[in-house]
Design goal:
Two copies of one chain form a homodimer.
Chain A (H helix, E strand, L loop, with lengths): L3 E2 L9 E2 L1 H10 L3 H14 L2 H12 L2 E2 H8 L3 H13 L3 E6 L2 E6 L4 H12 L4
Antiparallel strand pairs in A: 1-2, 3-5, 4-5
Helix pairs in contact in A: 3-5, 4-5
Chain A binds a DNA duplex (30 and 30 nucleotides) through helix 5.
Amino acid sequence: MVDKYITADRCDCEVIHEDVVNSVRTKMPKEETLYDLAELFKVFGDSTRIRILWALDEAEMCVCDIAYLLNMTQSAISHQLRVLKQAKLVRNRREGKVVYYSLDDEHVKMIFDQGLVHINEDK
Amino acid sequence: MVDKYITADRCDCEVIHEDVVNSVRTKMPKEETLYDLAELFKVFGDSTRIRILWALDEAEMCVCDIAYLLNMTQSAISHQLRVLKQAKLVRNRREGKVVYYSLDDEHVKMIFDQGLVHINEDK
DNA sequence: TAGATATATGAATAGCTGCTCATATAAAAA
DNA sequence: TTTTTATATGAGCAGCTATTCATATATCTA
């Protein structure tokens, strides 16, 4: 069951299934990719941003529309829209004083739907 | 272009496209659902947890294996495994002193893959 | 039994994050 | 031009979170 006795720098235990670990290690994407993935999900990990994205999936809206819809301040929404823009999840266009935001990624809804599948599983 | 002039409690602006907002409002999932969705993505929004999940997607591993693989302390991994278990993303089984963890949701990989599609888009 | 080992967990803390508030900027209207 | 309005943004702060450290618990071994 147990293969070898090794001690890693940080891991403060000794029983390690080295063949399993080595096998998994070769299959892991590189650190940077997983870091980027976590950063993306971090953006999804806030209900305000989730609500904004969901709303924009239904229709293009201006900042004021979104603030009104979610009953939040314009400033709070504007800050979050910046986060979403940096993550390349939304784009905007200016029309006079009004700035309209819309979704910039057709995968967002698919990711959300997969998440909902998990949530709706009763285990 | 602009439909009506309204002022919401929090929104500190006046120009609102009321028909758009109302239409979107009827299509939005209920608040609780979107909150739960954000909570799920919050779990994915940490590179340590992402790496653990990815590793467990390759093979069942004990706490020590994971700590060794990721070069982190057993305690840090154990704390994160608890978070993942509470989110029903991993399960465990005990075999003597050793506790083995494995994925508890086949959608995780699909969600990750969708996320990677977004990341790999060069815009 | 006592000792060793794998894991779990509570407390403490440093760093992060989302909001508020005040203010800046941009564009239209007066 | 000045005023008004929509949006953007920096500073500050309260709350959260991921890790560390110490220790508890569970199980096997001697």
